[in-house]
Write a structure and sequence with these properties.
The complex is a heterotrimer.
Chain A lengths: L4 E11 L5 E12 L4 E5 L6 H8 L7 E9 L2 E2 L5 H4 L7 E4 L3 H4 L6 H11 L5 H15 L15 H13 L5 E5 L7 H18 L2 E6 L2 H7 L2 E6 L2 E7 H6 L4 H9 L47 E4 L2 E3 L13
Parallel strand pairs in A: 3-8, 3-9, 6-7, 7-8
Antiparallel strand pairs in A: 1-2, 1-4, 4-5, 9-10, 10-12, 11-12
Helix pairs in contact in A: 4-5, 5-6, 6-7
Chain B lengths: L20 H10 L1 H18 L1 H4 L30 H37 L1 H16 L2 H12 L3 H28 L2 H8 L4 H37 L10 H10 L12 H25 L1 H4 L9 E2 L11
Helix pairs in contact in B: 1-2, 1-11, 2-4, 2-11, 4-5, 4-7, 4-9, 4-10, 5-7, 6-7, 7-9, 8-9, 9-10, 9-11, 10-11
Chain C lengths: L7 E11 L3 H6 L6 E12 L4 E5 L6 H8 L7 E6 L2 E2 L5 H8 L2 E4 L13 H11 L6 H14 L6 H4 L8 H13 L5 E5 L7 H16 L3 E6 L2 H7 L2 E6 L2 E7 H6 L4 H8 L50 E2 L7 E2 L6
Parallel strand pairs in C: 3-8, 3-9, 6-7, 7-8
Antiparallel strand pairs in C: 1-2, 1-4, 4-5, 9-10, 10-12, 11-12
Helix pairs in contact in C: 4-5, 4-7, 5-7
The chains are: A alpha/beta, B mainly alpha, C alpha/beta.
Chain lengths: 324, 318, 332
């Protein structure tokens, strides 16, 4: 029953300095089983990156966090940094968008991975070097290129190196934050193929954070759609595309151009609400094309619909055919 | 406040407009030391400007004995000519500030022009102008000032020009660096693609971006200029017909104020120069810090977030 | 305005950048190398047409766009705008032409002067070209431009600063400033890649409507899905050359060049059931300093034959689309 990684009612606030507060993540709950691939999708500012930074304990001092992060049933958020640190890298690894920032420019790629291994007491000396060779091979970096410096690598190779580093300590969960956003389509395809293979071969669970719906549709089993700091819908990707139960999910797919799909992509009017001044009612109602009476006043909770689906929309409380 | 609108306009929030122009004020207001510096400087400037009205006695009026000690009538005593020190300080600050501002204006015009031209045009123009700047930078200030003052003769105008010519180099370098980065901004490229000429780009897009930096530099340069003028006057190279703070110190020194124990003739003018310089530095430093984002980022150590108790859940659902 | 001649015609355009040799290289008198960023590119844009120049980063698409507007200098080839050759015009001679060809940049957060209000930004092109008549007439033109980019009512936006606007709104402002002079050609360099998905279609739809009004648009993009939906024609670039060109539907539906085919195969589809079968090319495009002999794509081409190493193929008619052409000896 219990999942490998579970987020329970995670909240993140940021102090704005002038006494104000920004409620960036507003009660996110997620579950990830071993070997599962979950996409966390949303537009800029929806809180998807803050959510994963929160679960990894990588937030700045201006942030405050509440909620539980359960790793194999243990709440690793309970003691703050003290209880998270032993699990970071060892169980939960992360790959960021800008791979250049994750790598030290004045050290060779191999040396950095060896250092990471030694720091986490995973292995050292000859064993560490052997492990590095293994890791580089797993991510598709030719063995002799390990002695290169990060700037000698192309964007795709850097991202591979960053993935190798993330995998160094045999984590069970890989969190990838926009891993292909800065890359070209061909290199993106290579990295997605790599992530796919890693999940399959090593049984890694993947939490993929992205704004790119097609990437999630192709790589993930399940997805959670975030809007204004909340999850508005989650379920299997197939169901999200073919039978969305939240208008935002439907509109987001409709806004995404597709190579073969017919029909011109639509644009969603308006902009997301500001999180320092939360709106009344459903946060999406000012932009929604299916607003009805309760939307402007009543905030819809995320409700389980059937076996695997959850959505936060009043339309799901209305018997079919009444408003459609 | 939402207005019914079609697509893109839908949500715009009312927000106070904060232009970059506001940065200077904000920088001063946010830092208490800079606020104090600004207030002190304001008081000194006002006292100097209104010296003819505010000064308790005449500037050339002997109102008591030579080196008369501080008293109720003369809180800071009298100088070697029996002139009231408070009066002397107000008139002296007036000349010092005039020299400081005028010399700074000269150096800002030169430094701003050289910096903008070098940074904006780059290439050969940049190389030549920066070489010239380097030459000026390695000239030792005080000896040159002494030589020039000696050759041209000591006059207020000459002092202003000499100080101005010596102080523009750091301004030119700072402005050049900033202009170089502004020049690469996309909106400057866009203006060029629109067919805008150099003058238009410089005055409309580049200068306004470097203006706050220029202001910070101006304030800092004023401090240096006042210091230099004081030093020149003290060395006897100042305009003998004008009484600046440096001249006041020099006079007292010449007339053996120290050996007669008349500290009040020498300490207050020195302290006033120091206070003016300190105020300028506090203001200029605060503006510079506000403009430099690298200094603003205080914490990259991260991971020191705070925990809050669980919220929004009834006990039974946990 | 000359009616004869195409809106924009580019013929065999070549743009090189010098490679920085470094001190050692200069001392050893190593020959000066060049990046052949654009290496013989020809295309045309008609009035009322949207041509998408598609390719991966480093393929030379942005360099091509900038050179077309003479923001970069070509080392060879010809650029003709409305029948007039502009390749060798001096910058002074070019200035009157600039009001008829405009550019929209990728980053709407960087391309607007943060200190200028919307009104000042949109009015600036009028002031630069001393166009638009009196102050009141200019104000009218600014309002009109804002309405055309669907920022309505204009009063709501005129006195705002860029930081008060969303990315989509900023990009619309940038477009408004580009169309206020009534240009004939608009170069849009990745106009939506920095925007959120939900507002991209709005901006692209806007370009589409401007195109219907007779504007010729040259859009640079790395996103084939976007090009497929919004372009009339697509030109695919690889390593400084156009390798395939034709009507959007034909290039996407019946690609002729192996590179186009590979590129199309790796575009993720939004329907999870349509699992793409990506034909992933190994490695990355070589840099434009050492361009391979023969067909420049042959080292990565899955279909390459011995001849490909020798023959540098020209764009020849191929495929089913009207005017579809591909640079591959195996196509057609």
């Amino acid at each position: 029953m219990s999942a490998l990684l579970e987020l329970d009612d995670l909240h993140v606030w940021f102090d704005l300095g002038d006494g104000g507060e920004l409620h960036a993540v507003q009660g996110v709950s997620l579950a990830l089983d071993a070997g599962q691939r979950l996409g966390l999708v949303g537009e800029s500012g929806c809180g998807k990156t803050t959510t994963v930074l929160g679960l990894l304990g990588l937030l700045p001092p201006s942030a405050s966090v509440s909620g539980r992060v359960l790793l194999n049933g243990e709440n690793i958020l309970a003691g703050g940094e003290e209880t998270i640190r032993p699990h970071r890298w060892n169980d939960l690894a992360i790959v960021f968008q800008g791979a250049m920032n994750a790598l030290n420019p004045v050290q060779t790629v191999s040396a950095q991975i060896v250092e990471a291994l030694e720091l986490h007491h995973s292995s050292s000396g000859r064993a560490a070097r052997a492990r590095v060779a293994e890791l580089l091979e797993a991510v598709g970096i030719p063995r002799d290129r390990g002695d290169s410096f990060p700037h000698e690598f192309s964007g795709g190779m850097r991202q591979r190196a960053a993935i190798a580093m993330a995998l160094a300590c045999n984590p069970s969960v890989l969190v990838a934050d926009e891993p292909t956003t800065a890359l070209d389509v061909m290199v993106q395809a290579q990295i997605l193929e790599l992530l796919d293979a890693l999940c399959r071969d090593f049984g890694l669970a993947l939490l993929l954070v992205t704004h790119d719906l097609p990437v999630v549709a192709q790589l993930c089993d399940r997805a959670a759609v975030m809007y204004a700091g909340e999850i508005v819908e989650q379920g299997p990707v197939d169901a999200l595309y073919h039978d969305p139960r939240h208008p935002y999910t439907r509109l987001l797919f409709a806004a995404t151009p597709d190579l073969q799909g017919n029909g011109v992509p639509i644009s969603i009017p308006g902009a997301p609400p500001r999180l320092d001044r939360p709106p009344q009612g459903c946060p999406f109602h000012p932009r929604c094309d299916r607003v009805f009476s309760p939307c402007p006043t009543k905030h819809p909770p995320l409700r389980r619909l059937d076996g695997e689906r959850e959505a936060a929309c009043h339309l799901n409380d209305v018997p079919a055919g009444v408003t459609r | 406040m939402s207005v019914a609108l079609r697509e893109p306009g839908a949500v715009i929030e009312q927000e106070p407009i904060r232009s970059r122009r506001g940065i200077v004020w904000q920088a001063i207001r946010r830092r208490p030391s800079a606020t104090v510096g600004a207030l002190v400087l304001l008081v000194i400037v006002l006292a100097a400007v209104f010296a003819p009205v505010l000064a308790p006695y005449g500037l050339h009026e002997q109102v008591g004995p030579v080196f008369g000690p501080p008293s109720w009538q003369h809180p800071l005593g009298l100088d070697d000519g029996g002139i009231d020190m408070v009066t002397l300080l107000m008139w002296g600050a007036r000349i010092s500030l005039i020299v400081g501002f005028a010399a700074t204006l000269v150096s800002m015009v030169i430094g701003g022009f050289v910096g903008v031209a070098a940074g904006y045009f780059g290439g050969k123009v940049d190389t030549i102008l920066m070489r010239i700047t380097d030459y000026f930078l390695v000239i030792p200030d005080v000896p040159l000032m002494i030589v020039v003052a000696a050759i041209w003769g000591p006059s207020l105008f000459h002092i202003v020009i000499v100080i101005g010519i010596l102080l523009w180099t750091s301004t030119a370098r700072v402005i050049r660096a900033q202009v170089k980065s502004v020049r690469e901004r996309v909106y400057v490229k866009r203006a060029r693609a629109l067919g805008a000429g150099h003058m238009r780009i410089v005055f409309r897009h580049v200068l306004p971006q470097v203006a706050p930096l220029l202001i910070a530099n101006t304030v800092l340069t004023i401090a240096v200029a006042i210091f230099d003028e004081t030093a020149l006057s003290f060395l006897g190279l100042g305009d003998p017909s004008r009484i600046s703070l440096g001249k006041v110190i020099e006079n007292a020194f010449e007339r053996a104020a120290i050996s007669t124990g008349a500290w009040w003739a020498i300490v207050p003018p020195g302290a006033l120069v120091a206070v003016i310089i300190l105020s300028c530095s506090l203001i200029g430093g605060a503006i510079e810090d506000a403009l430099n984002p690298r200094l603003r980022v205080a914490h990259l150590s991260a991971r020191s977030f705070r925990l809050r108790p669980l919220v929004g859940r009834s006990p039974e659902s946990v | 305005m000359s009616a004869n001649g195409r809106l924009l015609e580019v013929d065999d355009l070549v743009v090189h950048y010098p490679v920085v040799r470094g001190l050692l290289g200069a001392m050893a008198r190593r020959p000066q190398q060049v990046v052949r960023a654009v290496d013989g590119v020809s295309f045309a844009v008609e009035r009322g047409e949207l041509l998408a120049l598609v390719g991966e980063s480093g393929c030379g698409k942005t360099t091509t766009a900038q050179t077309v507007l003479r923001l970069l200098e070509p080392v060879g080839g010809r650029i003709a705008f409305q029948g007039q050759e502009i390749t060798t015009l001096s910058h002074r001679q070019l200035r009157p032409l600039r009001r008829r060809m405009q550019i929209v940049y990728q980053d709407p957060y960087e391309s607007l002067d943060p200190r200028l209000t919307v009104r000042a930004t949109v009015e600036e092109p009028l002031l630069i070209h001393r166009a638009g008549g009196s102050k009141a007439e200019r104000a009218e033109l600014v309002r009109d431009a804002l309405e055309r980019v669907e920022l309505t009512p204009p009063e709501l936006f005129l006195h705002r600063y860029p930081h008060e606007l969303s990315g989509g709104q900023r990009q619309r402002i940038a477009i408004a400033a580009s169309i206020v002079l009534g240009p004939d050609l608009l170069v849009a360099d990745e106009p939506v890649s920095m925007l959120d998905v939900s507002v991209r279609a709005g901006v692209l739809g806007l370009l589409d409507r401007l195109r219907e009004g007779g504007l010729g648009v040259l859009m640079i993009t790395h996103d084939l899905s976007t090009a497929a939906r919004f372009a009339d024609r697509i030109a695919v670039m690889y390593l400084g050359r156009i390798v395939e060109e034709g009507p959007a539907a034909a290039v996407v539906g019946d690609p002729q060049h192996p590179y186009t085919k590979a590129l199309l195969s790796v575009v993720p589809r939004r329907d999870p059931r349509e699992r793409s079968r990506p034909q992933i090319l190994r490695g990355e495009a070589p840099d434009a300093v050492r361009i391979p002999s023969g067909c420049r794509f042959h080292p990565r081409c899955p279909a390459a034959i011995a001849d490909c190493r020798e023959i540098d193929p020209a764009l020849e008619p191929a495929g089913s689309g009207a005017g579809q052409r591909a640079a591959c000896i195996l196509a057609g």
